[in-house]
Amino acid sequence: MQSRNTRLRSTTLAIALSLPSLAFAQDDARDLDNVVVTATRTATTADDALAAVEVIDRKDIERSAARSLPELLRGRAGVTLVNQGGLGKLSTLFLRGTESDHTLFLVDGVRVGSATSGLTSLQDIPLEQIERIEIVRGPRSSLYGADAIGGVIQVFTRRGANAAGVRGRARIAAGSHGLREASAGIDLRGARGGIGLDLGHQSTDGIAACRGIGAPYYAGCGMDHPDPDRDGYRNNNASLRADFAAGDAWQFDAQALRARGHNFYDADPAWGLPDNSKVLQQVVGGSVRYRPSQAFTLRLTAGRNIDASDNYLGASHANRFETRRDSASLQGDIALAQGQSLSLGLDWLRDSGGVDDPFSAFDASRGNRAAFAQYQGKFDAQDLQLSLRRDDNDQFGGKTTGGIAWGFGFGDGWRLAASHATAFKAPSFNELYYPYYGNPSLRPEASRSSELSLGHDAGDWQWRLNAYQTRIDDLIVYDTAIFAANNIEQARIRGVELTASARIGEWDVRGQLGTLDARNLSTGSSHGKRLPRRPQRSARLDLDREFGAFGFGLSGIAEASRWDDVANTLRVGGYATVDARVSWRFSRGWTLQASLVNAFNRRYETSAYYNQPGREFALGLRWQPE
C-alpha cells in the first residue's frame, strides 16, 4: 500500500496533468481518492484537508436524479437554498449563515457571478455539464480575495475519459409539468491530448410561481393579482474542452461553457414590469502549466465570465443587465521538503458592467490586483497551514486577509482541527449605484471566523463535527431609514455541523445536520433579530443501495422555519420532504432511471409568497458505455 505522502504526490501529478483553468480541475476524480483543490489552491485529499469540505462527483450527481444545481445542493451541511418558484427560477444560496453574495463561485477555476447584483445564477448552470463540485465551508479570502466570507463552491465541467479513443454519451428524460431534457457528448483522445463537446437542453412548462399576498405592496411576487399562468423555463447549453501535453513539462488546457436560458415569471399588469427574461451564462478559460520537476510547478491562467439578462414585458424589450469578469493568475508551487510546500501567486481581476434601462441606467468598472502566499507543512501527526493575501482595489484601496489552520491526528482515525481567518466583500455595483437603492458611500464588509472540528474515520464509517463563529462588520442591508443600501454595525453567526457517512450492510448512508444562530447585533430596533432566510435547524439523509442491475435511493430533507425580513415579522414555515429514485441497468451502457420528488406532496415555501412544486415525477434513459 502506498504511504500517504506517496499517494498525495501521485494524485497531485495526475491532477496537474489534466487541470483546466487555474489548474483547478480533476482527472477521473473517482480514482483519485477524493482529491480536492479548492480548499488550498493545491491538490490534497479530502481526508487531509483542514477545512470543512464536501465533494459531489459525477456518480453522485447521476445517482441523485437531481434536475438542477440548486436541487442537488439543497439541504447539504451549511447550505440554505431559497428558490422563487421551481425549476429555473431565481435561487440564492446562503453558506453557513452568511449573505447570499458572501460565497465565491468558480467554474473551472474562473470567478463567476454578476458584478451588478453580486449573485451567481445557479439555476442557469446546467447540471448535465457538471463533472464534479467541491464545497469548502469557511472563509477563503486569504487565498481568493473578495466574496469568500462564507466559503467557496467550485464547479468543474465535464471531462473526457483518460484512455485513448472515442467515447460518447447521451441522455433523454421527461416528467411532470412538461419537463423535457436531452443531452449528448463526445470525447476524442490521443496519446498527448484530446478534445470534447457536450450539448444539452432542458425545458419545463413550470408552475404558477406566485400565490400573491392580497394587497399591492410592491412588484414581484408580493402583488395583489399575480398572473394565473404557469411560469416556464428553457435552457440550451454547450461545453467545449481541449488539452495538450507538449512533452513532460508543459501542459495546455482550454474550456468553455455557454448556457442560454429563457425564464418566465409573474408580473401584475398594473405595474407594467417585465414578465420574462432571456439570460446568458458564459465561462471561457485556459491555462499553461510548466512542471520541470516534482519540486516546482508554475501555472499561468486566464478566464472570462459574462452574465447577462435581457428583460421583456411580453415581446417588448424593457432593460438589460450585463457584467463581465476578466481574471488572470500566476501561481508557483514549491516543494520545500518532505511534507512541506510553499505557494506564491499573483491575481488580477477586472469587473465591468451596468444596466441599460430608460429609468435606471448606469455603467461601472473596477480592477483588483493581489499577491498571496501559503505555507503547508506536515510534522508527524500535526498539520499546519498559513496563508496571507494583500488586495489592492481601484475603488476601496488595500485590504489584507490571513488564515491559520492546525490539525492533529491522535490515532485510530481521530483528528482534531482548529482555524481562524479573516475575509472581506466589496459592495456590488447595484449596492453602490442602482437608482433608489444604491449608496456610493458604502464600505466593504469584513469578517473574522473561528472554527473547531473533531472527526473520526473508522473505515466503513466516518463522521465530523464542526463548530464555528463568524462576526461580520459593516454588513450591507437595505435601510428603510434612508431608503437605500447601508452598512449596519455588526452581525454574529454561530453554528454547528455534523456530517457522517457509513456502509451498513449493502446500504450507503450519508447524513448531515446543522444548527444556526445568525443575528443582527447593530444598535436600534433590529438588535438581536435573526438574519432573514436562515433556518435555525436543517437536516439531510441519503440512503442508497444496489441490487445487482437495480439501484434504489431515498433522500429526506428538512428545514425549520425562518424569517423572511430584517424586522422578523414575516415568517416562512418549516418543511420536510422525501424524494425517491430507482434505476435499472438493463444492458451494457444503458440505464433507465425514475425519480419521485416531494413524494408526499408537501406544500411549502422557501421564500415568502413563492410556491414550490408539489409531487413531481421524471423518467430518464442514459447511454454511457463503460
Protein model, in words:
This protein has helices at residues 4-16, 58-64, 69-73, 141-144, 429-433; strands at residues 35-36, 44-45, 52-57, 79-83, 91-95, 103-107, 110-112, 130-137, 151-157, 165-175, 179-189, 193-207, 231-246, 250-264, 276-293, 296-313, 316-337, 340-356, 362-379, 382-393, 397-409, 414-425, 445-457, 461-479, 484-504, 507-520, 537-547, 550-559, 562-563, 571-572, 575-587, 590-597, 616-623. By secondary structure, the chain is mainly β. The chain has a single domain (4-623), classed as Maltoporin, Chain A. It has a 22-stranded antiparallel beta barrel. Strands 3-8-9-6-7 form a five-stranded mixed β-sheet. The longest helix has 13 residues, at 4-16. It is globular. Belongs to the TonB-dependent receptor family. Residues 47-152 form the TonB-dependent receptor plug domain.
